[in-house]
């Protein structure tokens, strides 16, 4: 390839990455803005979850085709119960509690509390998967916890229920990601198709509870009668907008990850949280103190350090595995006999 062609290709690739990153940030901000605006008019966290699940169930198959992701094989009833149902339950709890937290506290504070996700990930992966972490990873949890504590103590609009719901949502999202990775390793499902199956199952699960708690009142009860015509139209449009921006956020994040290195993605993810917090503060004009901002900054910096430490640990682990494989290959054959049982055991370890 000629130098001008290489330059053009590099510029095009960079432009595509920047556009996707901008879409990801914009969709993340608008999802939170739409959600908070709806909740200011109506106390309906389950309705927002239902709308998001409806849109993502309808749109994601088309997005997967557009991204040329191979179609997933039909799942049996046993697979749905064994793999999809547990993840769907976690998703429902995480989503509803997340929207409930935004109902009770400012978006900026809810996202600051969600910065504790690495803490839950480290603890839960250790308890469930027996995964060990380096001391560097453990040390990065200190600024995250310290920053969240400072932000909590100095939060002007603090609400205990909102904080607990944000913590519950964060723990459920973390547990969901751990279990989803385990499901993908066992079922060989692409994570975008796993998201589709989980969203569809989550919608089926939450539908009767939503109708009993909010749906009937929203369509036939006092909840709708309290709204003016303009408020009703605003709620409908912003619920639809919330569903589409949530789906766009998911697709843009996945596509962005497929184009960049993991370390670039982790840095961009930290940047996204910063933009969401700042945008929420500016848009909703939440009163904040300098100490509160300091706590938010410390927590976000802790996330950045955590991502760097995890990347370094993963790189070191891969290097060790390669060195061990090279050492095995360099041994004489009679020192490492290969039998059918050995191959079967290795295969089973990779597929369980």
Give an overview of the whole structure:
There is one protein chain. With 352 residues, the chain is an all-alpha fold. The protein has 13 helices and no strands. The chain has helices at 3-41, 45-66, 77-104, 107-113, 117-128, 135-153, 160-187, 191-220, 222-225, 229-259, 262-284, 290-330, 340-351.
The poorly predicted ranges are 333-352
- Report the helical percentage: over 70%
Which value, in Å, is the CA radius of gyration?
Answer: 23 Å
What portion of the residues fall into strands of 2 or more residues? under 5%
Number of helices: 13
Average pLDDT, rounded to a whole number, is 85
Largest sheet: none
Structure summary, number of beta strands: 0
Keywords:
single chain; 352 residues; mainly alpha; 13 helices; 0% strand; globular
Any chance you could write out the topology, listing elements then pairs?
Blueprint: H1 3-41, H2 45-66, H3 77-104, H4 107-113, H5 117-128, H6 135-153, H7 160-187, H8 191-220, H9 222-225, H10 229-259, H11 262-284, H12 290-330, H13 340-351
In short:
It contains 13 helices and no strands. The chain has helices spanning 3-41, 45-66, 77-104, 107-113, 117-128, 135-153, 160-187, 191-220, 222-225, 229-259, 262-284, 290-330, 340-351.
């Amino acid at each position: 390839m000629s130098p001008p062609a290489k330059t053009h290709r590099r510029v095009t690739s960079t432009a595509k990455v920047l556009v996707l990153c901008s879409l990801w940030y914009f969709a993340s901000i608008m999802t939170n803005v739409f959600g908070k605006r709806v909740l200011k008019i109506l106390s309906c966290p389950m309705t927002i979850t239902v709308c998001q699940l409806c849109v993502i169930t309808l749109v994601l198959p088309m997005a997967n085709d557009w991204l040329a992701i191979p179609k997933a094989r039909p799942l049996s009833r046993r697979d749905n119960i064994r793999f999809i149902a547990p993840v769907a339950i976690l998703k429902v709890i995480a989503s509803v509690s997340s929207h409930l937290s935004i109902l009770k506290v400012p978006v900026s504070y809810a996202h600051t509390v969600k910065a504790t996700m690495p803490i839950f990930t480290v603890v839960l992966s250790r308890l469930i998967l027996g995964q060990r972490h380096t001391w560097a990873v453990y040390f990065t949890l200190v600024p995250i916890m310290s920053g969240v504590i400072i932000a909590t103590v100095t939060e002007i609009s603090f609400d205990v229920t909102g904080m607990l719901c944000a913590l519950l949502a964060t723990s459920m999202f973390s547990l969901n990601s751990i279990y989803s990775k385990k499901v993908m390793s066992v079922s060989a499902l692409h994570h975008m198709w796993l998201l589709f199956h989980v969203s569809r199952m989550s919608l089926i699960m939450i539908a009767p509870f939503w109708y009993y708690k909010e749906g009937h009142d929203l369509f036939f009860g006092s909840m709708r009668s309290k709204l003016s015509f303009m408020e009703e139209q605003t709620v409908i449009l912003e619920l639809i907008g919330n569903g589409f921006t949530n789906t766009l956020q998911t697709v843009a994040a996945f596509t962005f990850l497929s184009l960049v290195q993991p370390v670039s993605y982790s840095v961009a993810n930290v940047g996204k949280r910063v933009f969401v917090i700042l945008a929420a503060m500016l848009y909703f004009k939440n009163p904040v103190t300098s100490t509160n901002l300091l706590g938010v900054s410390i927590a976000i910096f802790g996330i950045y350090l955590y991502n760097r430490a995890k990347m370094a640990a993963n790189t070191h682990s891969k290097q060790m595995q390669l060195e061990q494989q090279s050492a095995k290959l360099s041994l004489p054959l009679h020192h490492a006999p290969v039998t059918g049982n050995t191959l079967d055991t290795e295969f089973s370890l990779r597929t369980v």
